[in-house]
Amino acid sequence: MNDNNERTSTPNNARRDFLRKGAAVGGYALTATAPFWQHLSLAADETLVPFTDMPADFTAPPLAPGAIHYLDSRGISSFYTPNEDFYIIQHYNQPALSETDYRLRLTGLVDKPLTLDLAALKSRPKVEIDAGFECGGNSPRLFQGLIGNARWGGTPLKALLVEAGVQASGIEVVFYGADRGEETIRDIKVEQAFGRSLHISDALGDDVLLAWEMNGQPLPLYHGAPLRLVVPGWYGVANVKWLSQIHVQDRRFMGRFMGRDYVTLSKQDIGGEVRWEERSVTRIRLKSSIVRVTQRGGSHLVTGFVLNDGTPLKGVEVSIDGGPWQAATLDPNASRYSWKLFTYEWRGAKAGEHTLVSRVIDANGQVQATPEEMPEKPTRWENYAQFPRKVMIG
Ligand SMILES: Nc1nc2c(c(=O)[nH]1)N[C@H]1C(S)=C(S)[C@@H](COP(=O)(O)O)O[C@H]1N2
Ligand SMILES: [Mo]
Predict the structure, then answer these.
(1) pTM score above 0.90
(2) What pLDDT sits at residue 254?
(3) What is the model's pLDDT at position 33?
(4) Is the CB of 223 within 6 Å of ligand 1?
(5) How far is the CA of 199 from the centre of ligand 2 (A)?
(6) Cα–ligand 1 centroid distance for 85 (angstroms)
(7) 327 CA from centroid of ligand 1 (Å)
């Protein structure tokens, strides 16, 4: 796995690669030397093995204004999630901002407040970064469908903050979207914009982007056009869409999506005391999941994904019917913050129902938790447990 974002294929020729099917027939072993991505889309002689833990009529909803959108994760067939498939979560409206009237304001504890139009933003140095993320509420409920991986194009936030001159007292950077909704706080109704914040040390991270491109296309409306924040390695909620204002302040921001919502309640050992802890959803927890099993000429291939905060991985393993953990193959071209797809060739699968599970281990030796090892956690946020899947071999 390399640490940069250089890939052998761009989003466009990547799609062509998927269509160019392996010429080999008769099973996965024969294609073992083919490029990893050739495994991803279904070949003509390849079929999905049914999951028995999934409703037979499970499908992803079509794109619709204002609605949430998620993937049928069995259909993940490319490294980059096509823009029209990438999941969508918005908590308020989806503002259609005019590109010509659009302004980004940088305010608060800075020497030089800034107002930038889109042309000014786009004339700044442009970088591209591959980053995958999931909603902090992604879970087995939607078969992990609140997930996606894209190449984001934009300009580094850090340089803009440096240019504006953050004052010594500025410790928190708040990002406001243009979308607004009514909130009730202790019986008081107020209108608020979507807002999230980063500590100044996170905001000055080299990889944080102000992005106007998604997979080589202008950022689509539902994904925050014309500009969104991209914080690689963090859960979806940190990636503020329809970004309209960046405000530097001298204390923590406690808006709904930092202080009340997207707050994980869990039982933790806090320095030797067992306490119910509340923590804002921030960096992506170490997670893997199997998303599909395919069959071809009597061989079986298990495919899944890994997401985490960018910590290098040691490996991913698969266990069948409670048997020993076997090494899976990670996409060798995955980059630091992209999702990491993996495949495992399942030999000798016998007819009947089987239970398959994956687990990921990072370079620090951290092992993805089993459901039993998870802390007591009544909120739905950060469901990073191993996800055992049931399949039926015909
Ligand atoms: N302005 C704004 N930004 C937002 C949100 C929102 O409601 N408003 N939702 C957040 C949440 S909870 C998630 S999971 C991601 C989803 O990004 P996507 O819709 O592009 O996949 O956007 C985040 N950014
Ligand atoms: Mo989310």
Answers:
(1) yes
(2) 96
(3) 54
(4) yes
(5) 20
(6) 15
(7) 34
